[in-house]
Specification:
single chain, Glycosyltransferase, 4 domains, five-stranded mixed β-sheet, globular
Length: about 700
């Protein structure tokens, strides 16, 4: 669109000239393209303007499905007076945190250090050389509840900048120096011991909610990686308490309103202890990690409920969050028609009118939809009071389908349709694992299709990854999360298909990750590559927040590659990375659960299985490099039924033997015996005699 064209933006009710964001691809930036604020995207033009006009920078960071980002936009960024203050006295920059996680991490950390908290929208005031002197999150337009109003803040900063800009710049310089010193030179590697595992389990026990599951007080986040860690502890230590924490949490989350019982999938977090009232936005990463967790819980317990929930999550992703080319969208909004949660709530009259006087009251009683309601003007469907719910209830399934169609027509829900490499990799891992465990070819095909999308749309010819793709455009240098999560996805697809190309991609990308992000001086991986845009400092993230950190996943990937390939390079860097992680997590290991999962691969006994297919079995693969697991029921059944997180499997066939030897050279000496498919099994650092029976050493 021509940026000088006058357009009427009906959502704001005024005629506007679009600002510099109009040419961006981010849905979040485009939401602000018609603000009266003269927004700039992060880039040279904005910073050169600030230098030339000697103006401070107003930096606002958020994402398109963020409720409080919407609130601040409507209150302030659509307001003519606030826009005048910003346009006359500041250079205003908008950043989508999901497109630029490096920028977000740098300034969010500064906000957390200086204020003790963080969140979005993130508001930063800084000098033209990008050094911040003020940090906050949401700021109301007018003063309220002890919070300064944005108009007052902007006027104060304007006056102080006119009087003595040097004072603010000195503050920015001091803060930048502290952050660079603190976060680029973090050291302190330590031994990887079970003491870290045991301390984390104790910490989880202390914060566990025995009534409703989850950890700590409200708001309660799913944090699936915590449950994945505890599930492994339950398996490896035969610990019933850990398993109880996992199952109690998984069941209560499903019964609450945080789960969408009509259209499936989980919202981001619950505002209460019972998981009843969520913050309604749905994130791809939450649903990927939860699908993975429910799959593993089913594999370990064979509890049918977990199987059903996983199927429903993956169905939601397939029908609402999947692009025609195979990639997965990022998120769905909490708000519809300007109200949070309106899309997801119902009244009893509405249900009865739609379903009739026989089915309507039955449905309302089943899902606790009452005249009083449980959220603002309606009710959130939930099963908290329904002790007799049945996921096989055909009547409920039929009525939910009717309500689902009605809901989609009733209100429109914004979907952030940009495709992020790291989050897509998590969902690929979920689909691949579910396909392997449930023996569902469709899930594996979806995972492969999404991986093809990344390889074709989000990777260049040199194997460098980009952060996001949207509307034909791939952009921004990939971060550590993109590379480490991609490696994990490749390993998951290899385990589901035994197509050696996935193992090869995992290995080559891991080497590239080391080359681009490894800190040769202090150890660990930086978030941004050495040759990408350099910010105030190069952050290293270790703490596992809403998703596992890139460093913890890198540790997991390197250790798993070491176990699979016996490659000394991977063994060396896995050891270095795990020692680095141990040094960072020792104060509060429960906040680093995915690092603990990586530690478990080194601390607990491992099992390595190499299956050498007989010539007859190999020929049935029709000369493909992939080995069709349907032609080997014994191996398929074993991988499906056994939850063995420390087991790795390689498959050697006549078709893939040369390629496999290039990745795991020890396999070249492995042969069949008795002209039958042969298993080479090693466990806890010793090997058994080759056998034609997979289960003979159980």
């Amino acid at each position: 669109m021509n940026t000088t064209e006058h357009v009427t933006n009906k959502g704001q009710g005024t005629t506007r000239i679009p600002n510099k964001l109009i040419d961006e691809k981010s849905p979040y930036l485009l939401q602000h393209a018609y603000n009266p604020v003269k927004w700039y995207p992060w880039g040279t033009e904005a910073f050169e303007l600030a230098q030339r006009e000697n103006k401070p920078i107003f930096l606002s960071i958020g994402y398109s499905t963020c409720h409080w980002c919407h609130v601040m936009a409507h209150e302030s960024f659509e307001d003519e007076e606030i826009a005048r203050l910003l346009n006359e006295n500041f250079v205003s920059i908008k950043v989508d945190k999901e497109e630029r996680p490096d920028i977000d991490t740098v300034y969010m950390t500064i906000c957390q250090v200086t204020t003790g908290s963080g969140g979005w929208p993130l508001t930063i005031l800084m000098s033209p050389d990008k050094k911040p002197f003020y940090a906050a999150t949401y700021i109301p337009k007018e003063p309220q509840y002890g919070m300064i109003g944005l108009g007052d803040l902007l006027n104060q900063v304007r006056l102080q900048w006119e009087k003595d800009p040097g004072d603010m710049m000195r503050t920015g310089n001091q803060l930048a120096d502290i952050m660079k010193r603190e976060f680029e030179t973090s050291t302190g590697s330590a031994d990887v011991t079970k003491d870290l595992i045991n301390l984390a389990v104790t910490q989880f026990n202390q914060s566990f909610d025995h009534d409703y599951g989850g950890f700590g007080n409200e708001p309660k986040f799913p944090s699936p990686h915590n449950l994945m860690f505890l599930l492994r502890h339950a398996k490896l230590e035969n610990d019933e308490k850990s398993l109880f924490m996992v199952e109690n949490t998984l069941k209560h989350m499903f019964r609450g309103g945080i789960y969408d019982h009509i259209g499936y999938g989980f919202s981001r977090y619950s505002t209460d202890a019972k998981w009843l009232v969520p913050h309604f936005e749905k994130m791809l990463y939450d649903n990927a990690l939860l699908a993975l967790t429910y799959t593993e819980a089913y594999q370990h317990t064979r509890e049918k409920l977990y199987f059903v929930i996983t199927e429903q999550i993956l169905e939601y992703i397939r029908r609402e969050m999947t692009d025609a080319e195979g990639g997965f969208y990022s998120a769905q909004d909490a708000d519809s028609e300007g109200e949070e949660g309106k899309y997801y709530t119902f009244t009893t009259d509405e249900i009865t009118t739609l379903l009739g006087h026989r089915d309507g009251p039955f449905f309302c009683e089943y899902f606790d939809i009452t005249k009083e309601g449980n959220f603002e003007a309606g009710s959130i469907p939930n099963l908290i009071k329904n002790k007799e719910f049945n996921t096989d209830n055909e009547r409920i399934v039929r009525l939910c389908s009717t309500l689902y169609d009605y809901r989609r027509d009733r209100h429109k829900l914004h979907t952030d349709d940009k495709i992020l490499t790291s989050w897509n990799a998590l969902m690929i891992t979920a689909y691949a694992t579910a396909g392997k465990v449930f023996r569902t070819t469709e899930y594996i095909d979806i995972a492969k299709h999404a991986m093809d999308f990344i390889n074709f749309r989000l990777m260049n010819e040199e194997g460098r990854l980009f952060v996001r793709y949207r509307d034909g455009d791939a952009a921004f240098d990939g971060t550590l999360d993109d590379y480490s999560f991609y490696c994990m996805a490749c390993l998951s697809l290899y385990e589901a298909t035994f197509e050696v190309d996935y193992l090869k991609r995992a290995a080559s990308t891991a080497y590239r990750m080391i080359q681009l992000f490894w800190d040769n001086k202090y150890g660990g991986f930086f978030l941004n590559a050495h040759d990408s845009e350099q910010l105030l400092y190069r952050p290293k993230e270790v703490y596992d927040g809403a998703i596992p950190s890139g460093n913890s996943v890198a540790g997991y990937v390197l250790q798993r590659l070491a176990n699979i390939t016996a490659n000394p390079d991977f063994m060396e860097f896995a050891n270095k990375q795990l020692r680095f992680l141990a040094g960072q997590v020792k104060e509060y290991p429960a906040g680093h659960s995915f690092s603990l999962i990586a530690f478990m691969q080194a601390l607990y006994p491992t099992k390595e299985i190499v299956c050498v297919a007989s010539r007859n079995a190999s020929s049935r693969a029709n000369d493909r490099s992939a080995y069709d697991l349907e032609n080997h029921e014994e191996l398929s059944d074993y991988l499906s039924q056994q939850f063995e997180p420390n087991t790795v499997v390689l498959l050697k066939t006549d078709q893939n033997m040369d390629l496999l030897a290039g990745i795991a050279d020890f396999t070249q000496d492995y042969r069949t015996i008795n002209d039958k498919t042969t298993y080479y099994i090693c466990e806890n650092h010793h090997c058994y005699a080759p056998t034609n029976e997979l289960n003979c050493y159980k």
